[in-house]
Amino acid sequence: MNREQAAIRYLEQELLWHIDMLECLKRGQGEVVCFEGKTVLIRRNEEPGIYLLTTDSPEAGAAAFAGQPEPLDVVARGPGVAEMVAERFGLSLSKYCCNVANLKKECLTWECPGLIIRPFRVEELPAFLAHYDIETEAEAREHIQRGELFAAEYNGRLAGFMGLHSDGSMALLETFPEYRKLGIGRAIEMFFINFCLDRGWTPYGQVFIDNEASFSLQEHLGMTFDRTKRLCWCFAKE
After folding, report:
1. Which site in 7, 153, 171, 184 is 20 to 30 Å from 54, CA atoms measured?
2. pLDDT recorded at residue 69
3. What is this structure's pTM?
């Protein structure tokens, strides 16, 4: 058994907490650069400086980065680990979140009269940027080019969107205010669950621990989550 296989076996012991790490390896998007005891560090292939870390101690987490390029973003989990990463490498912290995932791997049937889900168009970028300020225009263009950003068109008008982050997590979900409470957000997330399953992936996303509306939606869609298993994005300061 090689290091990656051994790391996967370890990560699968807490499947939900590590689903983002496991999917990164499964989709060929990263490699295990450290596996020592209860510490696993994955470096993403196409994004130098992007890491996923799980460990049981800040000291072990810090040691895992020995010999690695300086981190720009780290998805950290473990007691005090995110705070250690931020202080050691001069990174900022996001709010804590947790993984949500469709572990049953069952396709869903969605229905929303008047709704069409189609690829997002470049000329619609101003609407994207007006409603979603976490992604840059360049990042949004990349999502479009990869075919991983979709529009919710309701009765012929753009009503929202959803896509995948570069790490493969379901995200970018936005329903414009005038189209809320029509079932659009629910329908487009169901579409994306099927989108991931069709590719042999486990559909997953990450929800801030204080986002009650999102957790309610995830529960309704049969997604599995555990709010006690928290993780935190550590990212480069602007």
Report:
1. 171
2. 92
3. 0.93
Superfamily for the 115-201 domain: Gcn5-related N-acetyltransferase (GNAT) (3.40.630.30)
Assess whether pLDDT exceeds 70 at residue 192: yes
Encode pLDDT of 53-104 as tens digits. 999 999 999 999 999 999 999 999 999 999 999 999 999 999 999 999 999 9
> Quick one: pLDDT at residue 238?
67
Rounded to whole angstroms, the Cα distance separating 78 from 24 reads 19
Amino acid 71: pLDDT: 95
